[in-house]
């Protein structure tokens, strides 16, 4: 029998720093909920909005796979590996912090806010060489189907990370029905519904709801309206 956990959008942690508005699906910074520490190796899922010209100053990370998915606007990235880049909607950014890296993230625009998802995954290897990568995806490749954006394999579609995890994004028209078969035993799946109404198995999700399922081999997704979603398959243990 599959096990599930439902995180309604309005139950997320809420941090408003003025220049930064962040919704936390899992415990982060000043938001602590012992029932919501992580989902398997998925440690952080932050839904961030950064004001024009503002951002995160230089700060350190280690032994974490950090994935950024811009939803609106342009985010400028600088790190101690020498990367200076801009990511925007349609891009996927990965940083393997490994033995340690420092970076900053700023809204490149002085006029418009930037929105992005910040996701942290526990790696399956400690103290790896830090690395950075970003790619630009074709949005039409997710129309009524699943577009892979993260995997464990350098030769697969999307970016790769040090973990047996697969991420997909989808842009469904109303009435679309798709089955997702999990790729590895011992994995679970966490769906973050970006927009619209969708049924995952028999569970209804609205905009920004999160839903975790494990001890299952497959799930079904049925779009009740036009919908956009992020599907994260992750190991349930380190």
Structure commentary:
- A hairpin with a 2-residue loop joins strand 18 and strand 19.
- The mean pLDDT is 96.
- This protein folds into two domains: 125 residues, Jelly Rolls, CATH 2.60.120.10; 97 residues, Jelly Rolls (Sandwich).
- The chain is mostly beta strands and 238 residues long.
- The radius of gyration is 17 Å and the shape is globular.
- The relative contact order is 0.19.
- The protein contains no helices and 22 strands.
Which percent range describes the beta-strand content?
over 45%
The H/E string reads EEEEEEEEEEEEEEEEEEEEEE
For this structure, the CATH topology of the largest domain is: Jelly Rolls
What is the architecture of the largest domain at the second tier of CATH?
Answer: Sandwich
Q: Could you give a short account of the major beta sheet?
A: 7 strands, mixed
Structural class: mainly beta
Poorly predicted tracts of residues: none
Helix content class: under 10%
Reading side by side through the largest sheet, how are the strands ordered? 1-20-17-22-15-13-14
Distance separating the two termini? 22 Å
E-strand count = 22
> How large is the radius of gyration?
17 Å
Number of individual domains: 2
Gross morphology is: globular
Number of helices: 0
Mean pLDDT: 96
CATH class of the largest domain: Mainly Beta
- State the fourth-level CATH superfamily of the largest domain: Jelly Rolls
Outline of the structure:
With 238 residues, this protein is an all-beta fold. The chain is built from no helices and 22 strands. It has two domains: 12-136, Jelly Rolls (Sandwich); 139-235, Jelly Rolls (Sandwich), CATH 2.60.120.10.
């Amino acid at each position: 029998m599959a096990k599930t956990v439902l995180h309604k959008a309005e139950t997320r942690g809420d941090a408003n720093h003025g220049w930064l508005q962040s919704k936390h699906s899992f415990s982060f910074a000043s938001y602590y909920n012992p029932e919501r520490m992580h989902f398997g190796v998925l440690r952080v899922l932050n839904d961030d909005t950064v004001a024009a010209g503002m951002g995160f100053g230089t700060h350190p990370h280690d032994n974490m796979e950090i994935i950024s998915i811009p939803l609106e606007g342009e985010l400028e990235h600088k790190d101690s590996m020498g990367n200076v880049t801009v990511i925007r909607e349609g891009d996927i950014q990965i940083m393997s912090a490994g033995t340690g890296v420092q970076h900053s993230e700023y809204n490149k625009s002085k006029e418009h806010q930037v929105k992005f998802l910040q996701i942290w995954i526990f790696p399956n290897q400690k103290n790896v060489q830090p690395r950075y990568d970003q790619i630009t995806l074709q949005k039409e490749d997710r129309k009524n189907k699943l577009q892979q954006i993260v995997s464990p394999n350098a030769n697969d579609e999307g970016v790769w990370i040090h973990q047996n995890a697969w991420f997909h994004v989808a842009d469904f028209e109303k009435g679309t029905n798709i089955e997702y078969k999990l790729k590895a035993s011992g994995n679970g799946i966490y769906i973050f519904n970006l927009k619209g109404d969708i049924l995952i198995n028999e569970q209804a999700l609205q905009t920004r709801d999160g839903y975790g399922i494990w001890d299952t081999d497959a799930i079904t997704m049925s779009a009740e309206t036009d919908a956009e979603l992020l599907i994260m398959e992750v190991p349930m243990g380190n």
